[in-house]
Structure prediction request, 289 residues.
Amino acid sequence: MSLLGSVLLLLSIVGGTVSITVQVSPKVLNVTIDQSATLDCNFYTNEPLTNLMVQWTLYPWGSENPVQVFFYQAGVYVVGQHFKDRLNVLSKMGTFMNASISISNMKTTDAGTYTCEVRNLPDIEGTTEASMRVHVFEKPSHPFCGEHGDVATGHLVTLTCHSEKGSPPPVYTWTKLKQGMSQQVTGVTNMNSGVLYIQNISQFEFGTYQCNASNAVGFKICTIELSSEMNHAVIIGAVIGALLCFAFILLLVWFITHHLKKQKYKAAKASETQAVNYKAVPPKDTVPE
Ligand SMILES: *[C@@H]1O[C@H](CO)[C@@H](O)[C@H](O)[C@H]1NC(C)=O
Ligand SMILES: *[C@@H]1O[C@H](CO)[C@@H](O)[C@H](O)[C@H]1NC(C)=O
Ligand SMILES: *[C@@H]1O[C@H](CO)[C@@H](O)[C@H](O)[C@H]1NC(C)=O
Ligand SMILES: *[C@@H]1O[C@H](CO)[C@@H](O)[C@H](O)[C@H]1NC(C)=O
Prediction:
């Protein structure tokens, strides 16, 4: 039993009128996603626990609507829909002055303020509830780097970076990589949205950009190449096309000339043989004297 518990018990024994007191521990609980959370709640009361009522309620951050976590009264245990099959009662209700619970497979939607409320009629005076804040952390998922705008000198180019998951929401930083070293970027970064605006881009801004999505429990990076690559591709394509065309023409020309040569050669050969044949028959009137 804690010191406060002992003191309260002592006070009640010496006859002071002690009303109900509820305490939670810890006041702030940090868990990572899929882990379990133990929410301790202890109370002190003078009355027997025959009319005990315990209620755990979650007030999720950024939401107006409370979520029912757990309810106990007159031997009946009710677990809220959102926590079905994930909630354990750590101490038999109505036996000890202990209303502790644990929740397994914590989700990011489980984050918020949990209140433990205890009523034990007719003991209605005092602090009947206490609350704790529960953070659920999740590492950022692998971000996606994107490029928008016309990557040509003088234009506005935006680079985007986004992680689907991560709690608390990741912050994004952009750096430029040069020979493995990080450099500051010329441009304006919105660290919450992950957008980097590069106004009036020049060739000095071309290169490799890295985005770092980070939160309290981790970070992930993605990189993107910023260059007038499209133009290069077009030029390279055109050059290769032209070269191929040229090669084809060359081949064609060679083929034609070769073919023609062959025919000429044949013709020449044919006429030569004929000439020889003529020669083979010496003209009668040119017999040497
Ligand atoms: C829990 O997380 C909060 C928010 O990030 C932080 O301020 C606090 O120091 C953390 N507490 C512990 C005990 O880790
Ligand atoms: C209440 O019960 C839980 C779970 O059994 C235990 O961890 C905790 O120490 C108890 N609290 C007190 C004050 O005994
Ligand atoms: C864009 O940059 C070029 C070269 O640095 C400069 O001459 C031009 O004035 C700039 N244009 C604008 C709108 O800032
Ligand atoms: C990303 O940012 C986090 C938090 O600032 C830092 O610890 C980490 O070293 C960075 N990683 C890289 C690769 O820059």
Q: What stands out?
A: The mean pLDDT is 85. The pocket of 2-acetamido-2-deoxy-beta-D-glucopyranose (ligand 4) is lined by residues 212, 214, 219, 221 (CB under 6 Å). The chain has two domains: 3-137, 144-230. The domain at 144-230 is CATH 2.60.40.10 (Immunoglobulin-like).
